[in-house]
Structure formats: C-alpha cells, structure tokens
Amino acid sequence: RSEIPIYIGAQGPKMLETAGMIGDGVLINASHPKDFEVAIPIVKKGAEAAGRSIEEIDIAAYTCMSVDKNPEKAKEAAIPVVAFIAAGSPPMVLERHGIDVEKVERIREALKKGDFKTAFSTVDEKMLEAFSLYGTPEDVIEKIKGLAEMGVTQVVAGSPIGPNKERSIKLIGKEVIPAVKDL
C-alpha cells in the first residue's frame, strides 16, 4: 500500500457507522461474537451508505487475551483486566451478555476505593467469557474462530497477554497465530 491505512476505534453506533463510511478498518474493543453480531451490521450500513462494501473494511477485534498452557493461570491473569472492562461497560453491553449489573456496580465502587481485592474477586465467569479470550492456546484458537465466523478479519492480542508475558507471547506466536492466520 502506498498510503497509511486509517483504522477508526469505535464502540457506539455513530462511530461504527462512520468507520464503515470512511475507514480502512475499524478497531472494536471487544472479545465476544455477540458484540460483533451487533457492531458489524452497523459498520456495513455505513459502508453501504458510502457506496462501499463491508469486504473493503478490516474488522479488528481489540481483545483482552490471556494465554497459558495452564488454563487456570490464564484465567487468573485475565481477571484484573476484565474487572476494569466490566466496570467501564454500559448497561446494554452487560445485558447483552447476561451479566449481573449489581455485581458490576460493586466492582466499580471497589475500584473507586482502590479495593482491588474486592473488585477482582467479584469478577465471574460470565464477565470473563464476555470480555476476554483466555485459556490454553487451543481454547483461544477456538474463540478466535468464533470471532472470524462473525466477520472479524484481524485480532489484536491486548493486555494482559498471559501470566508470563514472554512465555505467552511465544505461545501466541508458535501455536495461536499459525492456527488462525488463514481464517
């Protein structure tokens, strides 16, 4: 390419639609297919309004990813990041995933007070599934396949990466990327 591609970070409907109209790609801060089921049609609407095809737009999932051979260690590493994601999520996103709004409010209050122990211990399985790709390389590969089925064309491995950054990066490079690069 002779030009630098422009990716638009988008969450809400107006920005998603705008990304479809003018972006080379859209960077969506999400890790679950349900979120892309909502977002991609809005991007497509914007693309069509501008006389473009959705296929012209790179749909990137900016994920919370945690990979380790030990799935429990991967899960534990994801919890702090998921706590902050849950705390910043609007009610409609929480409802989409069946997440207890009162639990999220407890996380918000604990984070405001700097009570990380309470915030992190309040994170539950629904939050982890909704807001992260965690587990063994095989687990993460399956989750990425689910995103690809929704129309995601690129995955960004965001924080925490895993309990041991160097080991997790190697696992992603040696096991995850080769398994998903041709999706």
From TrEMBL:
Keyword field contains Oxidoreductase: yes
EC number: 1.5.98.2
Record GO terms (molecular function): coenzyme F420-dependent N5,N10-methenyltetrahydromethanopterin reductase activity; oxidoreductase activity, acting on paired donors, with incorporation or reduction of molecular oxygen
InterPro entries documented for this protein: F420-G6PD/mer, Luciferase-like_dom, Luciferase-like_sf, MeH4methanopterin_reductase
Domain called Luciferase-like: residue spans: 3-154
Keyword Iron listed: no
GO BP: any one term: methanogenesis, from carbon dioxide
First-tier enzyme category under EC: oxidoreductase
Pfam family, one: Bac_luciferase
Alphabetically ordered keywords of this record: Cytoplasm, One-carbon metabolism, Oxidoreductase
NCBIfam families linked to this entry: PRK02271.1
Protein name: 5,10-methylenetetrahydromethanopterin reductase
UniProt organism field: Methanothermococcus okinawensis
